């Protein structure tokens, strides 16, 4: 198993966490507001990582902190766009538009880094775009404030992926430290905004505390640290394609815990999304050659 394949499998696990997060966020909003929830998520994740890995963090240098602060600001925009976007548009529109990161990332990589995507990646991106549309869109896609915010979320996350890809390749930057400290900065930014625009309160019931803690530990702390570590061995465009699976996992969770049933068109879209990952990962010529050899041996 190659390092890139291992990294991509780790990122699929991250996407699974984020698919679960929609249900947990909905539970959390019954008692706390947007910025308060995001502040709790990121600060708890940062504190937990700090306690568990303090020896690895105490040697952090200035350039790592600089990139961590920058990524924290970008993530703040990502979460503002995603959270408020859902409030001002339909869930189906939000799911499609936030997942446009898969298309925006290779475009930005080509514009700013002169990285020409290979044919496999282009095929995977097209399959993802069609799959996301089949899975999430209805016939009533209309421009609205929420649509603009969701596109902002997708654009900001594409920027986050490209900045992270650039940062982890620098010798002065420790990928693990970057992953942890960006959590702290994002949490601080959200906490400041929470005091300005909300009345921050802590969760009152065990149910919401469990949802917040799972969001913090798995959907935030583990997820963003894994993303940064994995991007040492894979490209930002690969990450964008893998993260397009998020609507698939969200749909599975919705079916299992909320009883939501998808249309046949949506199921076809989910299959197309999953197929795009195989199209990106598999060496097609090798697969074809292996299949020919298998058939030849069987005939002989």
TrEMBL record:
Q: Which residues form the EamA domain?
A: 6-136, 145-279
> Keywords assigned by UniProt?
Cell membrane, Membrane, Transmembrane, Transmembrane helix
**Might you report a single GO cellular component term?**
plasma membrane
Q: Which domain of life is it from?
A: Bacteria
Instruction: Tell me where the transmembrane regions lie.
Output: 7-25, 37-55, 67-86, 92-112, 121-138, 144-163, 175-196, 208-230, 239-258, 264-282
UniProt subcellular location: Cell membrane
Pfam family name, one = EamA
Q: Mostly located where?
A: membrane
> What topology does the record note for this protein and the membrane?
Multi-pass membrane protein
**UniProt record similarity statement:** Belongs to the EamA transporter family.
Mind telling me what this protein is named? DMT family transporter
Q: What's the source species for this entry?
A: Sinanaerobacter chloroacetimidivorans
Lineage of the organism: Bacteria, Bacillati, Bacillota, Clostridia, Peptostreptococcales
């Amino acid at each position: 198993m190659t390092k890139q394949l291992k990294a991509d499998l780790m990122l699929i696990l991250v996407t699974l966490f984020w698919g679960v997060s929609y249900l947990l966020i909905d539970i959390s909003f019954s008692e706390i507001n947007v910025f308060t929830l995001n502040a709790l998520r990121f600060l708890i994740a940062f504190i937990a990582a700090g306690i568990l890995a303090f020896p690895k963090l105490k040697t952090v240098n200035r350039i790592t902190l600089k990139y961590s602060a920058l990524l924290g600001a970008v993530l703040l925009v990502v979460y503002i766009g995603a959270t408020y976007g859902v409030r001002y548009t339909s869930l189906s529109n939000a799911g499609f538009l936030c997942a446009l990161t898969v298309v925006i990332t290779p475009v930005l990589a080509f514009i700013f880094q002169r990285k020409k995507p290979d044919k496999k990646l282009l095929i995977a991106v097209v399959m993802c775009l069609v799959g996301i549309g089949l899975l999430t869109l209805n016939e009533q896609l209309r421009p609205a404030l929420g649509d603009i915010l969701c596109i902002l979320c997708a654009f900001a996350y594409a920027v986050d992926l490209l900045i992270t890809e650039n940062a982890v390749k620098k010798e002065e930057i420790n990928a693990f430290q970057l992953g942890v400290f960006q959590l702290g900065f994002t949490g601080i930014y959200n906490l400041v905004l929470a005091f300005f625009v909300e009345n921050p309160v802590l969760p009152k019931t065990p149910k919401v505390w469990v949802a917040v803690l799972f969001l913090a530990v798995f959907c935030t702390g583990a997820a963003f640290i894994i993303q940064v570590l994995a991007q040492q061995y894979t490209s930002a465009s690969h990450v964008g394609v893998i993260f397009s699976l998020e609507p698939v996992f969200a749909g599975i969770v919705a079916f299992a815990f909320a009883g939501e049933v998808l249309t046949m068109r949506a199921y076809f879209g989910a299959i197309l999304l999953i197929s795009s990952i195989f199209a990106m990962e598999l060496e097609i010529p090798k697969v074809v050659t292996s299949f020919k050899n298998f058939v030849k041996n069987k005939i002989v």
